[in-house]
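Case study B.
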Amino acid sequence: MNVFSVPTELDHQAVDQVLDTAGQMEIERMLFDARHVRWIDPNGMVALLAAGAELKKQGGSPRLQLPDNSDVLGYLSRMGFFRQANGIFELLGRVPKRVSRLSDVLLEITSITANADVHTVIDDVQKRAGHVLASRLGYPATSVVQFSVILSEVCQNIVEHAEGPGWVAVQAYNWTKRLGRYVVVISVMDIGRGFRDSLNDEHSARYGDRWGDSTALEAAFLHGLTRFPDSGRGQGIQQIRRQVQRWDGSITIRSGTARIAQVPEWDITDPVVDGLKSFPGAQISIILPAVK
Amino acid sequence: MMDLTPVTIDVGVLVSKTVTSLHSHLVTRPTGRAVRLAIEAQMAGSGAQSLSVIDLSDVTILDFSCADEVIAKLLQGYLEPDSPEAFFMFRGVGESHRDQIQVVLERQELVAVAESDTGVRELLGVIEAYDARVWQLLETEGPLVREDFERVFPEPSLDDVLERLQKRRIVFQSSISGQYHALSQLVDDTL
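Model:
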């Protein structure tokens, strides 16, 4: 049996360990041992789902040993993790019952497979985002519009380009130690075809030998290239980048073996990372900090 | 005064009629495409010339994909050589829509007449500063004949500018009187 020990703090900085492992492990009897997890954010939760779903897609039977910590279990429950995980993992341990749908969650984990799911996300986020963005981040009341547009565009990326299942989740945290302020974390991941495959037919020739996961990410992220000949396409990611920059936030996209990032001064993430272990689809993380 | 057929299109109502589920937000490309096709269907019986007011007052969220379909592609479609001469004015354009509309118009090098939710009319998209000043004169002082423009803009390029503004469908010249009209004046007069 393959056992992967899930990092005790599973956030945007630790998800590579999950994705790297899931992309390389034998699919037979894969166990994700999350017993010692003490902290998990939307990136961690969605990465676990993506890793498990990928193994299952390849014919495996992934299992997830649930965390011992009751607070973490409760939080996973409030984020809707178990509803999504049920169809992916064999869950080992006691799944807590959901007491109420009312919670502090900004956007529960939502699966994205069709455009109707994007509408659901936008409808749901209207209920809470305005208050959180204003009270926690100090953004103007109107920022809920730009926030919704970011979510809409980033989720559409799954439907329009990935051609595979994906998930989105959003939550606000107090990053007292890391940053001394609140942040909102958006995680959107899929296990579809990824940027390289999506752009391959239309754009690989012009890059020649340089064509790969990192050049495909650069093409889409920096230059707005898309597989569609329509000149109105490809602006979604460009406009997400622009708005995230206005809010002094960070955005990273991992796809295949590479990751590209737009990083503000407070973030130490490398702008481009190549040579990661291959994992299908695209994994997007956006972090929006409170105004100083 | 002129042979334009006026049409008022409330996108808020249209989106709920057009899209399978009731969506108060204009998001996703298929939603935008459905709304655009519905607008085009409403305009189908409007004749060779038409003036449409696209009302965004009830639209809370407009994303870039939808803006590209509902606004940029709509305008683009009627700039084709064989298409009917259709004029559009976008009404109820709030701060929450403005950036998305500006971006999609810039990308396709288009220009559109927008009326804010407070009633201020402006051009969004790509327009030369000189052309915008000529349009602004017409907007505030029109209807005007060529000589009226010439008193303010004596430069020899005036005819080119007026022709360009007509071709871009942000100014209308009556074939009967020869007068130039801002779209907002036509809307006020005919609707």
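DSSP finds nine helices and 13 strands in chain A. The remaining cases will be described in the next quarterly update.
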